[in-house]
Amino acid sequence: MTRKMTPDRYGRLSIALHWLMVALFIGIYSCIEIRGLLPKGHTWKGALLGVHALLGMTVFALVWVRLLARVTPKPPIVPQPSSLQSGLAALMHLALYGLMILTPLLAWLMLGAADKPVPYFGWLLPSPVPVDPALARQLKIGHEWLGNAGYWLIALHAAAGLVHHYWMKDNTLKRMLPWRS
User: How far apart are CA 30 and CA 37, in angstroms?
Assistant: First the structure.
């Protein structure tokens, strides 16, 4: 897979990582929503939480690759948006990257403080903090708050892409589509 960017599209690596993150977030949120619908003590609850954690840590690993991929030049938006729109887009991307870094980091810290293992594809991640049940409860609140904020951030991001495409009629969305337009 090459990283080749054209003047009107992101490179293949950036596009693949973007849509892989979309799929991971669908899986992360689906696991939590399905888990919440199941009755207390259901045998799938633990497995869904495990898949949720695995997908979340995968987001945490891949976000660093995405950040590295961002150092390459971005294809311009045509027609060029206002400085207000560009500023809002930068804030949205900062918030999304914060979500992708902080939410799994808080989960890892929370599980460590709760003295729970963090398995990741056969490895056990070391606990970055000492066991502290009170800290684990505080970290859980932060993790859940960020997770809930993620619903809104992702929805706003997707809505903005659709507004740019259908209302503003610029190339914002086309630059990130996995197929040629």
Answer: 11
Number of domains, the chain = 1
User: What band does 122 get if pLDDT is binned at 50, 70 and 90?
Assistant: confident
Q: 3-class DSSP state for residue 124? A: strand
Q: How confident is the model at residue 2 (pLDDT cuts 50, 70, 90)?
A: very low
Core vs surface per residue 65-94: b (16+ CB within 10 A) or e: ebeebeeeeebebeeebeeebeeebeeeee
- Does residue 46 fall inside a structural domain? yes
**pTM for this structure?**
0.91
Residue whose C-alpha is closest to residue 45's, from 58, 30, 57, 34: 34
Reduced to 3 states (helix: H, G, I; strand: E, B; else coil), residue 178 is: coil
Domain that holds residue 112: 12-176
Q: Record the tokens describing residue 8, joined without a space.
A: 């009107």
**Tokens 């690759």 found at:** 65
